[in-house]
Amino acid sequence: MSKQWVKVKDVLEKLYAKYNRREFIKSDPLQFVYRYSSKEDMEIAGFLAALLAYGKVEQIKKSVTDLLGRMGHSPFEFVRKFDKHHRKELDGFKHRFTKASDISDLLELLREVFEQNGSMEQHFLLGYRQNEANIINALSRFCKSLLSRYSNQHNGVVAKGLQYLLVLPESGSACKRLNLFLRWMVRNDDVDTGLWKTVDKAKLIVPVDVHMGRLCRLLGLYDQKTVSLSAAVKITESFREIEPADPVKYDFALSRIGIVENCTGRIAAKCEPCELLEYCLNQKDRA
Q1: Is the pLDDT of residue 230 over 60?
Q2: Taking the complete model, does pTM exceed 0.90, yes or no?
Q3: Using 50, 70 and 90 to split pLDDT, how confident is the model at 278?
Q4: Phi, psi of 8 (to 5 degrees)
Q5: Is the pLDDT of residue 46 over 90?
Q6: For the chain, which residues make up each domain, given as ranges?
């Protein structure tokens, strides 16, 4: 490992020790996964919470709380028995671009997945290849399998809302929400569930949004200005230099800087104890 990465790893380890604790999931949609105890319920709650994880934090919490509340005590049972009556239970739900019909369409597809494969993990594994460098192709196959199923049932047309929820990597999107779900399911520590035992965590891709991208540029993990799939891959490759077996290890801790500490990138008095202050100051000097 180069001297540059040794220094960055030291900073990341400090952030991991500080933030990667269960108490901090209250600020994260991951909190909804731990409201359930069965794997099946946790999968469904996690998938829906991750797909709705766009927009302001408080709005995300409100929307996911509303959606899961409509689904009763067991999201899995709600999906397993999903029919036109259950669709009515979702009438009126809305989260920014996502409407009740989008969620209903998705749940109908998941009902078929459970009927045929038993769990989301088993369905995902149909497209997973151990010899592939990362999870991108498996994620693409997973989304395509659902979108194709919908298309075959609707004269070749796929609703835009469903396409937004199941965004394909080949579109160039960083697929932040889907990669977030995979992190929750695959990694296993005080924060992530480790429910999926077969997928290798070394193949995960960092869930990158604008805020995560800014912090990764600050640390020198990549230099692109846009948040895209290529940026997410580059960031992940840099993290792999630091932590080869677990490149997504630091995602939760690093993202707490923006969510918990309300970091905006502007240096202020509150920044004094921040582990990234030196990097911010160096960036300011270069500007």
Answers
A1: yes
A2: yes
A3: confident
A4: -65, -40
A5: yes
A6: 3-286
